[in-house]
Design brief:
Layout lengths: L6 H10 L13 H5 L7 H12 L3 H19 L3 E3 L18 E5 L3 H5 L2 E6 L5 H16 L3 E5 L4 H10 L6 E3 L10 H13 L1 E4 L9 H14 L2 E5 L9 H8 L3 E5 L9 H8 L4 E2 L3 H13 L3 H7 L20
Helix pairs in contact: 1-4, 6-7, 6-12, 7-8, 9-10, 12-13
């Protein structure tokens, strides 16, 4: 397929190259170049982006870089999704994300409108992986799309289990979608691309550097109606996803673990601070989501609507209208 010369797509593709890294001086106002204003119509957004970019050397450089990235993506079977496209997850809090790169089904709105993020430590224990698998399978069978990272530990365990459910998961990559990964992660990535979607905010060619890992963790908290943290440390990096979910007005849940294990200290901190609701399995997560919907949380109302409550025993039907 030939890549068109749409200037907005080229500019947004180029701006995604600088996410998770220090931009050059001439792009110090990076966020202002693409930041979305709530309620802004797609056409108005396109017009404003082009106006802010302007003309001159900076605009020319961005247009050239963006087209190059799009051509590389096209060769690798990777689609570019921008605001206004069919499938853009408009329900998610993605005001600071210029675009998403997708392998698989680009209709992310349909996949993510009823979704829950489940994430945790890459250095997971057996208990953490077992609970992650239980949660991933249970939520998927209830009709929720599990969103998790393409990474080892808790995320890999929840992804593998969710693939065995009736609703395949969506995986978020911490680098370019053409970047190599270990055998287990590569298999998960390929399954996501064929059954659902593998997505990234970063264009092809981007390595998985630490700042991009952090950006990916923040994105995980913004995509779904709720975030479930399983086995996470109390370091700032360990709680990035929970913090992003809270700031986006999403429900946050955390699973408790052994009190002497540092791997679970972040979960314990979230629960103790009242920043997360304690959950011990998929039914508890669904109950928490139901409660958030009853309280009128818009993301929870949308996510809980239409769930297969028969596949999740003990869960009551969603309320017809949010309770004030």
């Amino acid at each position: 397929m030939t890549v068109d010369d749409d200037p907005v797509r080229n500019v947004l593709a180029a701006l995604s190259y600088y996410l998770g890294k220090h931009p050059p001086e001439h792009l110090a106002d990076l966020e202002k170049l693409h930041h979305y204003r709530p309620g802004e119509a797609p056409r108005a957004y396109r017009t404003r982006v082009l106006k802010v970019i302007g003309a001159g050397q900076r605009a020319a450089a961005l247009l050239t870089l963006g087209r190059s990235l799009r051509e590389r993506a096209d060769e690798a079977g990777i689609a570019l999704l921008i605001r206004g496209d069919t499938g853009w997850p408009g329900h998610a809090d993605l005001g600071q994300v210029p675009c998403l790169w997708v392998r698989g089904n680009p209709n992310l709105h349909a996949a993510l409108i009823r979704s829950v993020t489940v994430t945790g430590s890459r250095a997971a224990s057996d208990d953490g992986r077992m609970l992650a698998a239980e949660v991933g399978l249970g939520l998927g069978n209830a009709g929720l799309t599990v969103v998790t990272g393409l990474s080892a530990g808790v995320d890999a365990a929840v992804a593998a289990a969710a693939f065995d459910s009736t609703t395949p998961p969506v995986l978020v990559h911490p680098g370019g979608l053409d970047q190599p990964a270990g055998l287990t992660l590569r298999n998960l990535a390929d399954r996501a691309a064929s059954m659902s979607a593998l997505i990234s905010p970063f264009p092809p060619g981007c390595d998985r550097i630490s700042r991009r890992w952090d950006y990916r963790s923040v994105l995980l908290g913004m995509l779904s109606a709720a975030t479930v943290v399983i086995e996470a440390s109390s370091t700032p990096q360990g709680l990035l996803t929970a913090r992003a979910a809270t700031e986006s007005g999403r429900l946050v849940c955390a699973a408790p673990g052994p009190v002497r294990s540092g791997l679970w200290s972040g979960c314990h901190q979230l629960i103790a601070d009242g920043a997360a609701q304690l959950v011990t399995g998929p039914s508890a997560v669904l109950d928490a989501l139901h409660g958030a919907a009853q309280r009128g949380n818009p993301a929870a109302v949308a996510a809980f609507s239409g769930l297969d409550t028969e596949a999740a025993p003990g869960i009551r039907p969603a309320p017809a209208e949010p309770t004030p």
